[in-house]
Structures are given as C-alpha cells and as structure tokens.
Amino acid sequence: MANTLFAAIDMGTNAFKLLIVQAHLPGKFIPLLTVREHVVLGRDSPSSTISTHSQNLSIKSLQNFNKLIQTHNVPLLHTRCVATSAVREAQNKAEFIHSISETTGFKVDVLSGEEEARFSYLGALQFFPVFENLILNIDIGGGSTEFAIGLRGKVEFCLSLKLGHVTLTQQNFGDEEAERASNMREYIRNVIKESGLIDKVKNIGFEIALGSSGTIRAIEKAVFKGYALDFADNEALLSECKRDWKFSIEELKSVVERLCKGGEGQNVRRDGFFKRRSESIVAGGILLDEIFDLLGIKEMLVSGYGLREGLIADSLAKVFDDGYDLNANARFRSILRLATRFNSKRITTSAAEIASIAREIFEGLRKYKELDNDGINLTVDLDEKDLENLEAACLLHNIGLSTGKKGYHKKSYHIIMNGNHLRGYSAEEVKLIALLTRHHRKKLPKLDDASFNELEEAKQKFKVLCAIIRLSVVLHRNGYINYREMDFSHSHEGFKLVIGEERGLNYQPVVEQCVTDKFAVELTHELDYFKKVLKQELSVELKAPPFCSNESSKGSY
To answer: Which residue intervals define the domain Ppx/GppA phosphatase C-terminal in the entry (predicted)?
Structure first.
C-alpha cells in the first residue's frame, strides 16, 4: 500500500494542516487522515518576522505530522510541505525554513501567490465535476486571497492579493463596530480595484464561481444552519439531504449582516458557532461580500477540497508521468462530497480505513478467481465497478451517525436513497450501495426481502460485497486498521487473511480487554457468513495486537 500513499502539508497563516491519502489511478484518491494544528503565524504579521514562539510551535506541529507520516509509511518522495502567505512575506523566512529542515527533515516549498492560486483550483476540481467549465476559484486565506480562472485543469489567469481574514482583523480600522466595517470595506475595495482584477475577470469571464477555503466553508455552514436567523435549524438531517454545497449573494449578505452586529450577545453567539475561527470570521465575511459585489458573483459553489488536495493531484501527475487524470472518476467524487457533508474528520478517517481493508480482501478474492487456483468457485465476476461500489459503501456506511448512534446504519441507507446525491450512478448501483450500508452490521440480509427486488442480477454480487464490508468493519472496530500489513492468500484449505505488525509502529502491550470475547464472537459470526457466501473457509491470523490507544482505530460504534 505504501507506494500509493501521498501526504501534503499546508503551513498556512491561520493553521497547519496535514492530509494523507491513498491514490488509485487513473484519477481517484481517498483521504485517510486529516489533521489541523492551530498555529497562527498571522499573529506575527505586523512585524513581518516570525517570532521565536511561533517558530517553536511550528516545529512542534511539524514533528507531530512527521510521526504520523512515518506511521503510515508514506514514502519521502510522496510527501510535500508548502508554506503560504505568512512565510512568503516574513523577513526571516530563510532562517525559519532552514530550522524546519534541520529539526524535521521537511524541505519546505514557499509558494508564490500564483502557485497557491493554481493548487487551490486543482483541489477544487477533485471535489466537483466542473472540469469542462470555466471556473473562477477563490481561496480566502489568513494572509492573502487567491483568484484563479481555469478551464480543463489549465489556469488562464491567477492573482494573489494581500487581503486575508487574519491580517484584516489585525489592522486598525477604527474603534466602533460600524466604523471598522465601513473602513475595512473601503480598504478592500481600493486594493481590488487597484489590482486590475475586476477588468481581468470581466474580459475572461467565468461560468461558475467556486470557493475553496475554510472561511468560505464556514460561511456556507452558517447559511445552511440558519445563523442569520433568530433560531437554529433543528431539522439537520432533512436539511443536509437537500443542501448542495452552495449559497447565493442574498444568503451571504444576510450572514455578514448578522456577523457585523455588535453587542455581547452577538459576540457570544458568534464565538459559540464559529469557535476558533470566530476571531477573524467578520473580516472574512466582509471580504467575501465585497468580492461578490465587485466581480458580479450571484452564487458560489463551495468546495470541501483546496490547496492540499491540489498538491496531491499535482504530485500524482508527476509521480505517475501524467497518468493521473484530473477528470477521471468524477462520479466517485459525489461519494466523497456526501461523506464530507455528514461526517466529522475523525469518522471520515475511520470510514477510509475500512475502505482500505475492504479493498485488500476484494483484490485478494479477485486475484485468485482470475488465477482459478485450487478449485476456487466464485459464482460472480468481480470488476472495477464492483470495487468502486464497495469503497463507496465503506465511505458512506456511517454517515447516519450525524444524528446519533442508534440505528445509524438505517439512517445511512435513507440518506443515500432520498437525497439524489450520487451523480453518475445508475439506480441499481445507488440501491446496491445503500443496501450495503444498511446491512454492514446487525442482522444478516435476507435477499427475498422486497428491498432487494430492484437488484435483479446484482444480488449475487451484493452477497459477496456484503460479506467483505461486514468483516472489514468488525476488524477495524477492534483496532486492526488499514496501515497494518495485510496478506490475503489461498490454499486447498481455503482463504487466509494475515494481519501483521508493521515495522516502526509503537504498539501498546497486549491487554486482555483489547481482544475481547465480544470480538471473537463477532469475528466468528462474520467468518461463518463469509463461508456461506463464498463456499470457502476464511481463517484470520492476527499477528499484531490492536492499537487500543489510537482514537482513529476505535471507530464510533
């Protein structure tokens, strides 16, 4: 698995972020781990020097990232670490970068504003099927805002302006709320007008405006949650099913108007909703509002991906000699959008790990079917679409947890079936994926039930895929997660799955409660079902004890 793992680190002005993914050609990657460290380099911006305190925090965060990268065995050549506005503008950036290299081994690439704009655009292409559209991509960062107009993965125009939500917050625009907002707006308008951006955008044009930053995602969430109203949206599940990652200029203005209202009550409400981002969200909202007005934007799509995902896509294209297709697997991205919409980062990581286990078992079954070794008699032929449907079910199996643990597998089924989320999938494929999420736990499926009528010929494939996802969930829930070594083999005695300990991982000593009697019962139950479906025994050898202290391996069940 290691040669398909990639990592990207974004040393941003407002936070440091790590992304680890597993790539599958020609154009798909699945996020395995997302980590955010609250390092605010932008606090040092008035002095144009990164302070010793900030340097120490940065190095500590990067050392933590390095441990995670090594734990996942991501190759050094597949790891990229970039810095943006705060480091780009710092007088002591050379000293800072050298210190990072000496202490962590990371070679930091300080991006130009134009490079940052390009990568943000590439990242957005991995989230929405907009490859064929002329896109205006906007990324509001802590120290700068990047604009890119692109078509089919090629950037026609890009520009970086020194307008960031952190740096704007730190500037003195007056003492009163209204005065600060008015002066900030005037400052933003002047910077944008003097840059020539308005004329350039008008001359080139765009079909779709896309936002790809944390600030814009926070505003979209505020729109969706009814932040501008006097009450919160209590029908979260129903609303989530209907919303589709966008907001209008009217919705933006209503949120910004509420953000700019003064008073202790409003400040408390803002802090509670936006949390760490609350300190600079007012500036971010005003900035986006002015951008909408000046560039004539009426509606914006909001990408869950950005700079880091763009770095990953660029790395894949380089490593695989342009074998990575930016426009491939557009339909699978609708799976990732749905998972991102409902799941927290921790739950998304858990689902991705289960998908990795399931892929290993699936590939093992398919390999021995193709070799026709030892009399294996699979009653169905497994192909790439079956694997994609299995991975989709793994990534979506726990989206129902957004409204509580009880019966979440049933809620996952209903979200998939009732939201028209899965673009490009046939009705039968959507039903197959939904049924796999419904039956990944609890009672075994009964194929004579009316809910299976629409599957027709896919019933036999469903049984095989269901056996795989159920086994993968049980293994993951008990600590046997994706980055352990896995070996799937076959002999005259049947199939064998060996999960071993990877070198360099610091496992906890075996504790009796880690491998419980409950796990043994669950595993035996799923192995019996596997045998019933595949007509072959499957033995599982667990060489490494589960890593019980790892939060991501515990899952949320």
So the answer is: 331-479
